[in-house]
Amino acid sequence: MKLTKYLHSCLLLEDQDKTVLIDPGIFTAQEHVLEAKNIQKLDYLLITHEHPDHMYIPLIKEFATKFPQLIIISNASVVKILGKENISVQTGNDEIVSLVDSPHEKLWDKQVPPNTIFTVFGKVTDPGDSLHFSSTTDILALPVTAPWGSTTQAIEKALSLKPKIIIPIHDWMWKDEVRKSMYARLTDYFKPIGIDFKGLETGETVIV
Prior knowledge:
CATH architecture: 4-Layer Sandwich
Strand content: 15-25%
Order of helices and strands: EEEHEHEHEEEEHEHEE
Structural class: alpha/beta
CATH topology: Metallo-beta-lactamase, Chain A
Oligomer: single chain
Number of strands: 12
Radius of gyration: 16 Å
CATH superfamily: Ribonuclease Z/Hydroxyacylglutathione hydrolase-like
Shape: globular
Number of domains: 1
Distance between the termini: 5 Å
């Protein structure tokens, strides 16, 4: 499987002759690191929850316009929001994507929206903004820092689940030098445990 990171929590997965995009948010759009005109094929667009760093409507509109057969999958809250934009969203599983509800971590200043955990190709688990899950596939997209949680909490979750590979997500708030330093530390920390931490930079692709 080919996996590319496009800033923060935006991942592009390619396998089984299908292309899946997860959480194209406002940071990805603002930095112009992923644009619809540069994508040749897109079968699925998955949205874990409605926060703009995971769901940026203008960018989603571009993908939906370019790929009219695009399957967008999320939860009922996102269905309602994108329905107002005449964008159709599904909420069910199929042979490529499965999903379950998992609570968004608490925020100190606002109510949290519904959050969805996706399993893609039976290989990748993406929990969005949740650490309230008890299983993972071999590849875990792990939110490593956030206003609602800490890197230590994320590490503890990974240690409890023991994925073979970690793809860090939700890291826009780290400056470049901080992120690179933290990724180096996390790579060294997980290696003796037998977990391959892949600190991908924006636009970097890995075969997993």
